[in-house]
Amino acid sequence: MGAQSGKPALPAMQPQAAETVVSQAPSADQCPVIGSAAYKNPAVYNVYGQQMNNPSSQPIHNPLSVLKNSDLVDSRNNMPLEPNQMPCPGQRKHLSTERIPSVIPKGGTESTWLFPSPQMVFNALKRKGKGDDVTEDDMNGFISAHNSMNEATWHQVAMWERLHAHECSQSTLLRFVGKPDDLSPLARFRSMMGGPMPFDRHDWTVDRCGKEVRYVIDFYFYDHKAGTPEAFEIISRPALDSFEAGLDRVKMAIYSKYADWGLPCPITGNPGSIGAAPETAQK
What we know:
- This protein is α+β, with helices and mostly antiparallel strands.
- It contains five helices and eight strands.
- It has helices at 118-127, 139-161, 185-192, 243-260, 273-281; strands at 73-74, 79-80, 101-105, 112-114, 172-178, 200-208, 211-221, 232-238.
- A four-stranded antiparallel β-sheet has the order 5-6-7-8. The chain has a two-stranded antiparallel ribbon with strand order 1-2. The chain has a two-stranded antiparallel sheet with strand order 3-4.
- Helix 2 runs antiparallel to helix 5 and helix 4 packs across helix 5 (273-281).
- The relative contact order is 0.15.
- The model is unreliable at 1-6, 14-36 and 58-74 (pLDDT under 50).
């Protein structure tokens, strides 16, 4: 059982508190800004889902520092306890340890999340046993695909969040967890109907100006479309943790169908850009 298809799971993004990348302001052709853009969540989380700035906690020496560059895994999110930037056994070529900033706003900060370095991704693939056919020369292409898919995922999530632009003008990604072996109900249903299995799953927790909203994301790869933009499919949607999330799914289904038909939104009369964008970003 689980999302196993032989394709490497996407290594999750990791934060780096020492570096700050200011999110770009929305351009004039984006959705109008509604509400307060000054909101910032008082909590800042690390890659392990732990709050980094809890005022009730006494500052102590980080006991994980002795594990730096180890491959011990945190079972809560399937990530190493400390980022491993050292060459792995048998590695033949040098890989960059530089981490590139994403466009995904990081909850509780003015910065964005950082993508893992090529060395971190290479180590993660070897650790998970999914890198037997991956070489150092493959990493540039793999990193490019990984980063593009994460940013495409955020684009989808941001489109869902536009349904709530009246209450929050700029949602942020607060924390996340990888669940490659935990099939979502939708993925299980699709596989029962003869569809492919996803090669990875992420759960992202979005900060909607103080309200935490969980999203479920399934990642698919189609071998017969390899080498084309249609080879990857991303399906993101709000988890059914509330009645509101279920209502959002109904709304988006209606908006998407009207956009497919080339018709304006049945509620506002405006072009159906919200419904069209998530489907476009999946490709």
